[in-house]
């Protein structure tokens, strides 16, 4: 049933799967791309998870990708809503996510950078939502269980409102 989800790497320690997308997109497009893979833009919930994402970013052959996009950061699943940083998973406040290490001087967008990203070193950065970046999707194994369909429904609703479906 989920055979179309490919190129995800299962990380036993974290109990999740991740995929680094090498096709740069803006934040909303990236959000939708993860959704089509029954996933969401990655949300960091621990230092272990941050370390893994940094490792994944480092080992992905990014340098060969050509085009006009911003390098040095990847889109992640958090955004500024009503002056509050919240994750894409059940709108949990970023401050409750378990990982909130901003890069030096970040967030510095003064309301102009309402989307979330991670510098390649794992530190968080606010970024303009129309900026094209690589991005990482996260897949919850729990989402595959029938009992968790409701949780996925919430992600789906958010995706629909974001992409105007
Ligand atoms: Ca910033």
UniProtKB/TrEMBL annotation:
It comes from Euphydryas editha. Keywords: Disulfide bond. The keyword Cell division does not apply. SMART domains: CLECT (SM00034). PROSITE patterns: C_TYPE_LECTIN_1 (PS00615), C_TYPE_LECTIN_2 (PS50041). InterPro entries: C-type_lectin-like (IPR001304), C-type_lectin-like/link_sf (IPR016186), C-type_lectin/snaclec_domain (IPR050111), C-type_lectin_CS (IPR018378), CTDL_fold (IPR016187). Transmembrane segments: none annotated. The keyword Disulfide bond applies. It holds the Pfam family Lectin_C. This is C-type lectin domain-containing protein. Residues 13-138 form the C-type lectin domain. CDD domains: CLECT.
């Amino acid at each position: 049933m989920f055979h179309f989800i490919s190129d995800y790497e299962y990380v036993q320690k974290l109990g999740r799967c991740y995929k680094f997308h090498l096709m740069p997109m803006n934040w909303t497009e990236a959000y939708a791309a993860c959704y089509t893979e029954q996933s969401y833009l990655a949300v960091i919930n621990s230092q272990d998870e941050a370390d893994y994402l940094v490792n994944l970013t480092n080992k992905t052959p990014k340098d060969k990708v050509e085009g006009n996009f911003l390098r040095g950061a990847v889109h992640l699943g958090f955004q500024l809503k009503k002056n509050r940083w919240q994750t894409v998973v059940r709108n949990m406040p970023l401050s409750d996510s378990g990982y909130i290490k901003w890069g030096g001087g970040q967030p510095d967008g003064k309301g102009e950078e309402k989307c979330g990203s991670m510098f390649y070193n794992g530190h968080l950065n606010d970024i303009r939502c129309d900026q094209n970046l690589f991005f990482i999707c996260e897949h919850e194994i729990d989402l595959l269980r029938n009992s968790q369909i409701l949780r996925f429904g919430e992600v789906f609703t958010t995706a629909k409102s974001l992409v105007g479906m």
